[in-house]
Amino acid sequence: MPTLFKRSNGIYYAILTDEAGRRKWISTGERTKSVALKQLPGITEQAKETARSKTIKEFLSEFVDYAKCVYSAGNLGIYERVIQTFIRLIGDLKLDAVTQRDVDLFKARRLTEVKGTTVNIELRTLRAAFYTAHRWKLVQENPFKQVKLCTIDEETPAYLSVKDLLKPVTTACSSLILTGLRPHEVCLLTLLLTDLFGTG
Fold first, then answer.
1. In this structure, how many other beta carbons lie within 10 angstroms of the beta carbon of residue 92?
2. Distance CA 106, CA 149 (A)
3. Does the global pTM surpass 0.70?
4. How far apart are CA 96 and CA 140, in angstroms?
5. Which residue of 22, 149, 176, 198 has the smallest Cβ count within 10 Å?
6. pLDDT > 90: what percent of the chain?
7. How many CB atoms lie within 10 A of CB 6?
8. May I ask the CATH architecture of the domain 56-135?
């Protein structure tokens, strides 16, 4: 609850202290203490609303201070880059104004720049950041909570043909002559490998 203080102009001011320990003076516009006191609950609620309505950039600044103690430098860098990317594509919105529509727009716009795998990593990162915002009571709901991740097509693995497989083996066998193997031993080894893998 804020305290009242009468300034030299005769007006009572409410003194509020934020989370960072900074003092803020808010005029009640009243010269009578009993009337000014009645305004304190409204001033307190207004201050809470203002504190909740941080922009994404303001949240990022506080989040970075917090994350320095919790995450490695590499992870912290990822959070910073991803949140900055969100701001670039969607705008520096108020945290509590970010909707699932904004999340879907971010996803769609980002997919024109990078692969789905990267977008999925970024969506998970933003979801984690907004969980922190929710825990700090800066947002009522996490807009990333129900986001659908991108479908990633499975890539066909690259296969080597028998010919490609035997190429380094044949080269290696040729160089084995320099190691002291007899020519017929090199030939036997080559035949054995060819028999095992075929000629391709």
1. 13
2. 12
3. no
4. 7
5. 22
6. 30
7. 14
8. Orthogonal Bundle (1.10)
